[in-house]
Amino acid sequence: MDISEIVIEGDSTGVAWRFPILRFGGSDPDAPKVYIQAALHAGELPGTALLHFLCERLRKAEADGAILGDITVVPHANPIGAAQGLFGEMEGRFDLGSRTNFNRDFPLISLRDRSLLVEDLDRYRAPDRLKRHLIHMALGADLVIDLHCDDESLQYAYIDEAFWPEASDLAAALGMDAVLLSDGESSAFEEAVSFAWKYETPGEKKPQLPGKLSVTVELRGTRDVYPEMAAEDAAGLWRFLAARGIVRDETVKLSGFTGPAVPLDNVEMIRAPQAGTVLFHRNIGERVSKGDLLATIIVAPGMPDGAIEVRAPQAGLIVTRVSDRLVRRRGDLMKIGSDNPSAATRKPGTLED
Is the distance from CB of 253 to CB of 239 less than 8 angstroms? Predict the structure, then answer.
């Protein structure tokens, strides 16, 4: 395992952030190259735990000569967010300086312009330099996996339709509960990577990208950080690497993915109609029917008619749920992967900021 380090100089005097890059060299130049990162949202740690266990297995495989394709691992991709403390809490999702989501505003470029990402870096603020380093590394690979987690959640992934159904092997290897098929129309990390591949020739879009993959994996919820869970997730990612010929393991046999693969247009974002205390009646992993009671919101405690009901607009699988019990008007409550397109208007790109 080769260990290097990237240093991001701060935008004020005396400040710098650094993070390690772990590389495992493959023996087969024709094998796919892989890039895996975790904790781009700095407080989302199931992926960091997964990579700790995966690297243990990769070091053994390296000693046994069982690594075929180059593997680059970034266990904690956002030291800037990890250093942001606000009133005793880490704020690792949004950059406090610009209020921008750390997983938005990645450069949308053609693959042929990859080298430009790390030229004249002094022109950019520290968070933008971080993003440019990350996507530059990712575009040197064929398979790119960005490990995240949701709030309270099943295990699922955002996968661009350009990679589906080929990417169903990743869903099967990790035992995902659902896949949300995206349209690749945002500046999030995984979609910026796929943008560069789709527009390798500027102005000419490739509708499918065989042999490539750029995906966001949501490893359940923020509190789902346990040794047994992380080890099993690492074993799942190992199975994917073996199935794709990046590591040698003849014992791996993947079954097919049996969960739902739902277009983003079919995802019902359940939001609070008013502010108040939310009482959930249904949990993640449950299937609901149209009209089922999802939650009660107490909007005027102790008053007659002081509570309102939130019901399912159509049938589907509850994929995520918010952990907060005090909600704002229009605050997110649930994501439901539904059987039919939502009647709500969705702008292109990701579901949330």
Answer: no
Q: What is the pTM of this model?
A: 0.97
Tens-level pLDDT at each residue, the chain (353 residues): 999 999 999 999 999 999 999 999 999 999 999 999 999 999 999 999 999 999 999 999 999 999 999 999 999 999 999 999 999 999 999 999 999 999 999 999 999 999 999 999 999 999 999 999 999 999 999 999 999 999 999 999 999 999 999 999 999 999 999 999 998 889 999 999 999 999 998 889 999 999 999 999 999 999 999 999 999 999 999 999 999 999 999 999 999 999 999 999 999 999 999 999 999 999 999 999 999 999 999 999 999 999 999 999 999 999 999 999 999 999 999 999 999 999 988 877 777 76
Quickly count: other Cβ atoms within 10 Å of residue 251's Cβ. 6
Beta strands (DSSP E) in the chain are 2-9, 16-24, 34-38, 71-74, 85-86, 89-90, 143-150, 152-153, 155-160, 178-182, 213-221, 261-263, 267-271, 276-280, 287-288, 293-298, 307-311, 316-321, 326-327, 332-338
Q: Read off the tokens for 262.
A: 């739902």
